[in-house]
Amino acid sequence: MSKKDCKQDIRKCSHNTSSHIHHHRHEPNSKNSCICVVPIFNHLEAEQMEEIMKVMKSISYKKGEVLYREGDTSNVLYVVSKGKIRIYRLSESGKEQLLRILNPGDFTGELALFRESIHEAYAEAMIDTNVCVISKNDLQEFLLKYPTISLKILAEFSNRLEISEKQTTRFVTEKVAARLALFLGECTDGGVSPIEIELPMSKKDLASYLGTTPETISRTLVDFEDAGYIKQKRNRKIEILDLDGLLLI
Predict the structure, then answer these.
(1) In terms of Cα–Cα distance, which of 66, 9, 67 is closest to 38?
(2) In whole angstroms, what is the distance from residue 72 CA to residue 68 CA?
(3) Is the pLDDT of residue 135 over 60?
(4) pLDDT of 7-23, one tens digit each?
(5) At what angle do helices 203-210 and 214-226 cross, to 10 degrees?
(6) Does the pLDDT value for residue 6 go beyond 80?
(7) Residue 135 maps to which CATH number?
(8) pLDDT, mean of residues 77-83
């Protein structure tokens, strides 16, 4: 498998999102895309990627199916090759807190690489999703053999820690309107307004992520629209009309 083949495989994945996925069906041909899209592997040489691909298993999940639950043993790394997964926790009262959403190229279950552990959260397919899994033992061998994989994983840990710290700070110091404004600003990737973005999650998930309610999210978006900061469109699309003003809320 060459790196050129990887790029072609990624393109095929991106144009084949309507294909039917069966419950927990093994998808051997999608292992190529797992290697291609995930940053912790796709920097390797073709021969090294093929070596990893041999020990990976590809599994599909239907929308709403759970990959793992809080308390389950954590002994594999999950890599998203196609689809979307939500990672969330439940409080003792049953209230849900969305931690992050995984897209193709993202991974979860990495804590099992460093210690015997159980999952402390839930992972659920948001749409029909394909993942590749690699066992803890196999991956640890590759970490020793190819140290650059370790560096890529550490880089992702660092990124997640930064996001988590920002989120914690906002919960303590910012009101809901400011949290939502900052979130919308980050979705623009630094673009200049007016710019159209698409919310990466439902209002329910966004409310969970920002520590509020869907009703508050809807009401705040209407307030932003009335103030001339945004214009709401269909299918989760929002046009940011005044990014500078929005970020000053």
Answers:
(1) 9
(2) 6
(3) yes
(4) 444 333 333 333 333 34
(5) 100
(6) no
(7) 2.60.120.10
(8) 91
Output DSSP code: residue 249.
-
- Residues 137 and 229 placed together within one structural domain of the fold: no
Amino acid in position 2:
S
Last residue of a domain, one of 112, 129, 160: 160
| Residue 103 shares a structural domain with residue 210 | no
Burial 118-156 (b: 16+ CB within 10 A, else e): ebebbbbbbebbbbbbbebebbeebbeebeebeebbeeb
Closest to 30 (Cα-Cα) out of 107, 124, 108, 132: 132
Q: How far, in Å, CA of 239 to CA of 230, rounded?
A: 6
The answer to whether position 165 is within a domain reads: no
Let me know the angle formed at the C-alpha of 206 by 164 and 122, rounded to the nearest 5 degrees: 65
Q: Residue with structure tokens 């790196």?
A: 3
The answer on 234 and 210 residing in a single domain is yes
Rounded to 5°, the CA angle 162-163-168 comes to 100
Indicate whether 26 belongs to any domain: yes
Q: Report the C-alpha gap between 185 and 40 in whole angstroms.
A: 28
Q: Which residue has the tokens 């906002």?
A: 170
Asked if residue 103 and residue 28 are part of one domain, the reply reads yes
Report the pLDDT value the prediction gives residue 176, as an integer from 0 to 100.
94
Q: Which of 31-40, 82-91, 160-169, 223-232 has the lowest mean pLDDT?
A: 31-40
Q: Write down the pTM of the prediction.
A: 0.71
> Domain span at residue 241?
174-247
Please state, for a pLDDT cut of 70, what percent of the chain lies above it: 86
* CATH code (residue 242): 1.10.10.10
Q: What is the pLDDT, as a whole number, of residue 32?
A: 65
